[in-house]
Amino acid sequence: MRQISPHRLTIFCAAAALAACSQPPAPGAQSMRAPDHDIVASIRAAGSRDTSVVEIAPLRNPAIDGFLDAAHAAERAGNIALAISKADSALGLAPDAPDILQYRAELAVRVKDYATAENDARRSYQLGPKVGGLCAKNWQTVLEIEQLKGNAQAVQNARTERDKCQVQGPIRM
Question: Going from the N-terminus, what domains does the chain have, and what CATH number goes with each?
Answer without folding.
Answer: 42-52+60-164 (1.25.40.10)
